[in-house]
TrEMBL record:
Keyword Zinc attributed: yes
Claim: Zinc is one of the keywords in the record: yes
PANTHER family associated with the record: LMBE FAMILY PROTEIN (PTHR12993:SF28), N-ACETYLGLUCOSAMINYL-PHOSPHATIDYLINOSITOL DE-N-ACETYLASE-RELATED (PTHR12993)
UniProt-recorded Gene Ontology molecular function terms: hydrolase activity, acting on carbon-nitrogen (but not peptide) bonds, in linear amides
Keywords associated with the record: Zinc
UniProt feature coiled coil, ranges: none
Listed Pfam families: PIG-L (PF02585)
GO biological process entries: glycoside metabolic process
InterPro entries reported for this sequence: GlcNAc_PI_deacetylase-related (IPR003737), LmbE-like_dom_sf (IPR024078)
The name this protein goes by in its record: PIG-L family deacetylase
Amino acid sequence: MAHPDDVDFGVAGSVANWTDRGIEVVYLMVTDGDAGGFDDGLTRPEMAALRREEQRAAAKCVGVGDVRFLGYPDGRVEATLDLRRDIARVIRQVRPDRVVIPTPERNYERIYPSHPDHRAVGSAALDAVYPDARNPYAFPELRAEGLEAWTVREVWLSGGSSVNHHVDITDQFDRKMNALRAHASQTAHMGDELQKMLRGWLGAQAAAAGLPEGRLAESFQVVETA
């Protein structure tokens, strides 16, 4: 994901569902979120350090202990070859079956997921999955580091308008909320509106999936990449 808290807004309920079933999850944040928050009393390096700690605390709420940061500048991410290589490196290190990324497409139905950093990270991550991580001759420096090629079986795109899969997260909703509240520098000012907003948004996604009234769901576009 691009920033600390992106994974918790979009995916934390699904992550809790997976870790409950014994699936190992690793987080990779491209930036430290140094351009976020509302406190002029903090320097940008101090904000970055705070947001890293908030993300680690949020991850623990949903059963994730491995959180990694690439340290790219918040608000200035581009889908460069360097970013593709850095993401491919982590894919080869972790060797995941599934990679969850922000959609690289602009969502005109709901603009908020379409932050330029999100789209840039989605584009670079999709290229890192295919073809970079699986091609032993892409980025030879990775092979020199002892990182052999790895093929990801599927990519789940979050935040897009082309949805083909939903995850019922009703039973994990409280943990998702705890994870989001851990990002106090970003969410504390929202108060009870945060839960109200999420229930409306996730309830609408559950209804679109045909789930019973009162259920909550996160939505994705699943792309087979094996």
